[in-house]
């Protein structure tokens, strides 16, 4: 089980949807008040309900943030990689951070194209030097091919069980701030343990992504 000694760091969390930041990293953010944290989400910027809820969640998380409005329709047609990357760069208030947190290119459950595209694009931008940080974390969750709700990967580089207080704050963000039904997917998913794959070298992250691509194909 890994841990992090980061403190007083400039952190950016890059996700596909408003609520992803809370589901997959909300406890870590809440438990790191010393972080100067920015959250950007690539979809739903023109959705008046989700955007209002996202900015309300930012207040609870004590983070700054902004939203894009990439297509997130039910068909989930593939987005051009350059469009995703340009959206990320346009939303970022800076290109230099101490830590980047984003989706894993495998996604957190089977399967969500926007999660996968976001994780891939962030890794490729990091590798190209268009965004910089000494380390990058990707969410580490698995649903065993839809056979269970997503759970934190036990052997991930960083893995932390949330305190009851932190988890309850996170759960309230999902059920009250975001308004998801108790008993629904999001509420039932809300992990009590959060895990991440940690990379300190861009080439290692790219290799990880390429291996995931082989598995998916």
Second-tier CATH architecture: 3-Layer(aba) Sandwich
Radius of gyration: 16 Å
| Overall spatial form | globular
CATH class: Alpha Beta
The spatial strand order of the largest sheet comes to 3-2-1-4-5-9-8
Descriptive terms for the model:
20% strand, 7 helices, seven-stranded mixed beta sheet, 9 strands, disordered N terminus, two-stranded antiparallel sheet, alpha/beta
SSE inventory with pairings:
Elements: E1 10-15, H1 20-30, E2 36-43, H2 48-61, E3 64-70, H3 81-91, E4 99-102, H4 113-128, E5 136-139, E6 141-142, E7 151-152, E8 158-161, H5 164-177, H6 185-189, E9 193-199, H7 202-216
Parallel strand pairs: 1-2, 1-4, 2-3, 4-5
Antiparallel strand pairs: 5-9, 6-7, 8-9
Helix pairs in contact: 1-5, 3-4, 4-7
Summarize the structure.
This protein is of the alpha/beta class. About 40% of the residues lie in helices and about 20% in strands. The strands form 2 sheets. The protein has a 7-stranded mixed β-sheet, with helices on both faces. Strands 6-7 form a two-stranded antiparallel sheet.
Give a written overview of the molecule.
By secondary structure, the chain is α/β, with parallel strands linked by helices. It has one domain: 3-Layer(aba) Sandwich (Rossmann fold), CATH 3.40.50. Helices cover 40% and strands 20% of the residues. The protein is built from seven helices and nine strands; from the N terminus they run E-H-E-H-E-H-E-H-E-E-E-E-H-H-E-H. It has helices at residues 20-30, 48-61, 81-91, 113-128, 164-177, 185-189, 202-216; strands spanning 10-15, 36-43, 64-70, 99-102, 136-139, 141-142, 151-152, 158-161, 193-199. Strands 3-2-1-4-5-9-8 form a seven-stranded mixed beta sheet, sandwiched between helices. Strands 6-7 form a two-stranded antiparallel sheet. Strand 2 (36-43), helix 2 (48-61) and strand 3 form a beta-alpha-beta unit. Helix 1 runs antiparallel to helix 5 (164-177) and helix 3 packs across helix 4 (113-128). The protein is globular. The two termini are 30 Å apart. The model is unreliable at 1-6 (pLDDT under 50).
């Amino acid at each position: 089980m890994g841990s992090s000694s980061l403190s007083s760091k400039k952190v950016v969390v890059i996700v596909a949807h408003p609520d992803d930041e809370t589901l997959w990293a909300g406890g870590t953010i809440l438990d790191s008040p010393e972080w100067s944290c920015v959250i950007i989400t690539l979809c739903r910027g023109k959705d008046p309900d989700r955007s209002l809820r996202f900015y309300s969640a930012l207040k609870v998380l004590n983070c700054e943030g902004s939203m894009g409005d990439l297509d997130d329709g039910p068909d989930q047609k593939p987005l051009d990689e350059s469009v995703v990357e340009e959206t990320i760069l346009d939303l970022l208030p800076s290109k230099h951070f101490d830590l980047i947190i984003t989706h894993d290119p495998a996604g957190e459950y089977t399967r969500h194209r926007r999660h996968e595209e976001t994780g891939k694009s962030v890794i490729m931008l990091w590798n190209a030097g268009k965004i910089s940080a000494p380390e990058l974390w990707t969410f580490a969750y698995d649903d065993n091919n839809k056979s269970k709700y997503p759970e934190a990967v036990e052997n991930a580089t960083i893995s932390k069980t949330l305190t009851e207080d932190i988890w309850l704050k996170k759960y309230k963000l999902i059920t009250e701030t975001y308004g998801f039904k108790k008993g629904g997917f999001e509420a039932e998913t809300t992990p009590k343990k959060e895990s991440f794959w940690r990379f300190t070298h861009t080439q290692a992250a790219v290799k990880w992504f390429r291996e995931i691509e082989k598995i998916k194909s």
